[in-house]
Design a protein that fits this description.
The chain folds into 2 domains: about 160 residues, no CATH class; about 50 residues. The protein has 12 helices and no strands. Helix 3 packs antiparallel against helix 8, helix 5 runs parallel beside helix 7 and helix 5 packs parallel to helix 11.
């Protein structure tokens, strides 16, 4: 047996340990590059959120704390949209919580992949969002899935909060942010976040039903409550049994 043959066997064995990713450095570079790209793209929405939140009447500090603590884009836009429309802060918070329920389902899927304990559990919970979950479940090995989750979650967290600060400071530098129409931008931004998800008949039915419920309830309930009702429709649709598709499969198709 030549000296080259043992080396070949070692390389083959290493490839077997990593499944379909025999060259880990290349895989790691690709994951980190993708994570940075997702973080930058999401940060653009953070600029909008910071400006919209300021137009809704929140201070720079309140806006930044909301992004640091809540850290779930759709829920944040919904909350400031309710407040900006004259709704109560508690109504806005309730709406945000209902929309954020999806992250709990993501956590069920990610728990087996990450297998975290101790202080890492609350950190993982904070970083469990659409982007980090989607990046993780798209990978073929546990090692690359974990790296994709942590790298994407951290990238989005940093860029989202940095962009929120810039957007809030920029809006507060104006004497009246509403003159630019920012008070009407929250619904538009929320629709922009939702539109990529409308890819099937089921999602269209849920969206149209939620919109109908909200519109019908407008004359009868306080400002902001129709959004809460619409969120309730979406949550119900998400938790109801679906015999055609497994729960884990549906989670794997999520995107922020």
């Amino acid at each position: 047996m030549s000296d080259a043959e043992p080396d070949a066997e070692l390389e083959a064995g290493a490839g077997a340990d990593l499944g379909t990713e025999p060259i880990w450095p290349a895989t790691r570079t690709g994951v980190l590059r993708d994570a940075a790209g997702v973080g930058l793209a999401t940060g653009a929405y953070g600029l909008s959120f910071g400006a919209i939140s300021s137009a809704a009447g929140l201070s720079v500090l309140q806006t930044c704390v909301l992004s640091l603590v809540m850290f779930t884009g759709g829920s944040q836009f919904a909350m400031v949209g309710v407040i900006g429309g004259g709704g109560a802060a508690m109504t806005g918070a309730a709406t945000a919580i209902m929309l954020g329920v999806r992250n709990a389902f993501y956590a069920v899927r990610m728990a087996g992949i990450l297998d975290v304990r101790g202080w890492r559990r609350p950190v993982a919970a904070q970083l469990t969002i659409d982007e980090s979950t989607a990046m993780a479940v798209a990978r073929t090995t546990t090692r690359s899935s974990r790296l994709a989750f942590w790298a994407t979650g951290a990238s989005v967290y940093v860029f989202w909060n940095l962009a929120t600060l810039i957007g809030a400071l920029s809006a507060h530098a104006l004497s009246n942010p509403r003159v630019l129409g920012l008070d009407a931008a929250a619904p538009a931004a929320f629709l922009a976040l939702m539109s990529p998800r409308l890819r099937s008949r089921e999602t269209w039915v849920v969206a149209l039903t939620a919109a109908a419920v909200a519109l019908i309830s407008v004359p009868f309930v306080p400002t902001g409550v129709p959004v809460l009702f619409a969120a309730g429709v979406a949550v119900f649709a998400g938790i109801r049994p679906n015999t055609g598709t497994s729960h884990s499969t549906r989670l794997g198709k999520g995107a922020r």
